[in-house]
Amino acid sequence: MSNVLESAGISRILFAAAFSALAISLAPVSRACAQDIAPLSNNKERQGIVQQAEQTPPGEDQGVYSDPLAPFNEAMLTFNLKLDDWILHPVASGYAFIAPDAVRKSVGRFFDNVDVIPRFANNLFQLRFAEAGGEVARFGINSTLGVAGLFDPAYHWFGLKEHPDDFGLTLRYYGAPTGPYVMLPFFGPSTIGDTLGLIVDGAMNPISYVTPWYVYLPVEGGWRVAEAINYRSLHLNQFEEADRYAVDLYGAIQDAYLQTRIHKTKELEQ
User: Fold this and answer.
1) 3-class DSSP string for the chain
2) What is the C-alpha radius of gyration for the chain, rounded to an integer number of angstroms?
3) Which residue(s) pair with 190 in the sheet?
4) Burial of 32 (0-12, 13-18, 19+ CB in 10 A)
5) Is residue 35 within 8 Å of 202, Cβ to Cβ?
6) Which residues, 6 or more positions from 103, have their beta carbon under 8 angstroms from its beta carbon?
7) What is the rounded average pLDDT of the residues 76-99?
8) Rounded-to-integer distance, Cα 217 and Cα 261, Å
9) What's the CA gap between 56 and 265, in Å, rounded?
10) Residue 241, pLDDT score
11) pLDDT at position 109, please?
C-alpha cells in the first residue's frame, strides 16, 4: 500500500507519454492540450504532499470535502499503484543501481531548470515581480555557471531561492473556484481547477510551437518519462512508513493534497 502514496505524486509525469499519444488523434487541439505539463517532481510545494500524508494519520486533522468523483478517484488511485508497482519502481531501481546519487540529483536539477517558464509566468500573473525576476535570474545563472542547470550556484552562491508556482495556484490566488477533488491517472491528486492549470502551464512550452507535432510529442513524452524515473530513483525508500495509514490511505492523500494547496495559496496572499 505504501506505493500508492508514491504513485499519487511521482507518476503524474508519466501521463505526458499517454497524453501525447491521445493528442495525435486529436490534432486540432493537440497544441492546447498535449504540452509541457508541470510535473509534481518539479513542484516543491506539491512534493510535500506525501510527507504530509505520512505525518497525518486518517481521522486526525483531516477536513471534510465534497467528493462527488470518489468512485472514479478510488479506481485511479489503484491504477496509479499498479503502474508504480509494475513499471516505475522497477525501472527506477535499476537506474539507481547504475547511476550514483549525485548524478541523479544533478539530472533532477537540470529538469527543474528547464521548467522555468511556468514558474516565471505564474509569479508574474500574481504580480509577484520580485519572485518572477528571481526565476529569470536563477535560470540565467544556473544555465551558465551551473552547467545547464546541473548545479545550483544561483542559490548556493547568490542566495536566490526557487519560487515554485503554477496556474492552478494562480486561479486560487484570484479566488476562482477549484471544483471537486479528482485523482488523475498517471498524475495523481488534483482538482478540476488544478487540472485546468496543468493544461495552461503545459501550453507555455515554446518548443511545441516551433517544431512539428510528430517530433514534439514523442520527444516530450520521452522527456517526462525520464524525469519521472529520475525523481522516483531518488525516493525509492522514502515512503516505507506509509503502510500504517492503509486504513484510509485515500483520505490521507486527499487531505494532504488539498491542505497543501490551501496553505500555499495563503502563503502567496501574505
Assistant:
1) CHHHHHHHHHHHHHHHHHHHHHHHCCHHHHHHHCCCCCCHHHCHHHHHHHHHHHHCCCCCCCCCCCCCCHHHHHHHHHHHHHHHHHHHHHHHHHHHHHCCHHHHHHHHHHHHHHCHHHHHHHHHHCCCHHHHHHHHHHHHHHHHCCCCCCCCHHHHCCCCCCCCCCHHHHHHHCCCCCCCEEEECCCEEEEHHHHHHHHHHHCCCCHHHHCCHHHHHHHHHHHHHHHHHHHHHCCCCCCHHHHHHHHHHHHHHHHHHHHHHHHHHHHHHC
2) 18
3) 182
4) middle
5) yes
6) none
7) 94
8) 30
9) 20
10) 58
11) 97
Q: Around Cβ 13, how many Cβ atoms within 10 Å?
A: 29
CA distance 191 to 182: 5
**What residues form DSSP beta bridges with 182?**
190
Of the pLDDT bands very low, low, confident and very high (cuts 50, 70, 90), residue 25 is very low
Task: Please give the share of the chain, as a percent, with pLDDT higher than 70.
Answer: 73
Taking phi first (over 0 means left), then psi (-120 to 50 degrees means alpha), and beta for anything else, what does residue 246 get? alpha
Other CB atoms within 10 A of residue 5 CB: 29
C-alpha cell recorded at residue 210: 516551433
Cell of 27: 490534432
pLDDT digit string, tens, across residues 94-128: 999 999 999 999 999 999 999 999 999 999 999 99
Full-model pTM: 0.76
For residue 63, give every residue at least 6 positions away whose Cβ sits within 8 Å of its Cβ, in sequence order, or none: 255, 258, 259
One-letter identity of residue 35: Q
Please name the residues in contact with 155: beta carbons below 8 A apart, sequence gap of 6 or more. Answer: 138, 161, 162
Tell me, what's the pLDDT at 184?
96
